[in-house]
Amino acid sequence: MEYGFSCMGYELAGALGVKMADPSREVIVMVGDGSYLMLNSEIATSVMLGFRLTIVVLDNHGYGCINRLQQACGGAPFNNLWKNSMHMHEFPDIDFAAHARSLGADAVKVSGLAALEEAVRQARDAARTTVIVIDTDPMPTTQDGGAWWDVAVPEISARPGVNQARAEYECKRNSQRIGN
CA 83, CA 13: separation in Å to the nearest integer? Predict the structure, then answer.
C-alpha cells in the first residue's frame, strides 16, 4: 500500500517484485482506483509469470486521498474526484473487475466488508492473481495512522481556510522540530 511518499502507481509493480523475490510469501496489495489507472499492466505480467497476487482496489471514484489533502491545506476541492473533475464528456463508469479480468486475473466486485473478507480468503487459495474491487467513500479520514505528512501551506492567502490550515501546519511543523 502506498501512502505518504506520493509514489502513486508503483504498488502493483512493487508487489510483483516482492513476490518474485520470495514466491513463498503471501502478497496482498491495497491500491486506490486512481493509482490503479496509472499502472495496472503488472497484473498481466503477474498472470503471465505465475506470480499470484491478491489486489484490493478501493474505488472512491477519483483521487480521494489527494482531494482530502487539498482540503486539509485550505484549498477547495478541485479536479480530483471524477464527479467534479474537468472533462469534456461524461466520465466513464470504469468496471475495474472487468478490466482486471481482461488482463488475465480472476476478479470480483464486493459490496461490503464481510464480502471483502470472504473474497480475500478465497483469493488466498486461487491459482492466479485475484483483483477484488470495493466501492469506498472518498471523504472520511482517520487519525489512526498517527503520521503527519509535511505538505507546506501558503503563508499568505485571502482564503480563511488556507490561513487556518497554515496555522495548523506551523504548529505541527514546530512540534516535529522539537521532537514531540
Answer: 28
Report the mean per-residue pLDDT for the chain. 83
Residue with cell 471483502: 116
Helices 11-21 and 42-49 sit at what angle, rounded to 10 degrees?
A: 20
By residue count, the chain amounts to 180
Please, where are the H alpha helices in the chain? 11-21, 33-38, 42-49, 64-72, 96-102, 113-124, 160-177
| pLDDT number for residue 157 | 87
**Cα separations in angstroms, 161 against 28, 52, 63:** 38, 46, 21
| Per-residue pLDDT tens over the stretch 70-128 | 666 676 666 666 666 666 667 777 899 999 999 999 999 999 999 999 999 999 999 99
Among residues 27, 2, 33, 41, the alpha carbon closest in space to that of 96 is found at 33
Q: Which of 63, 64, 70, 67 is closest to 153 using CA atoms?
A: 70
Beta bridge pairs of residue 110 = 134
For residue 67, with 0-12 CB atoms within 10 Å meaning exposed, 13-18 middle and 19 or more buried, which class applies? buried
Round to whole Å and give the CA distance between 78 and 31: 22
Q: How far apart are CA 137 and CA 33, in angstroms?
A: 12
Residue type, 36: Y
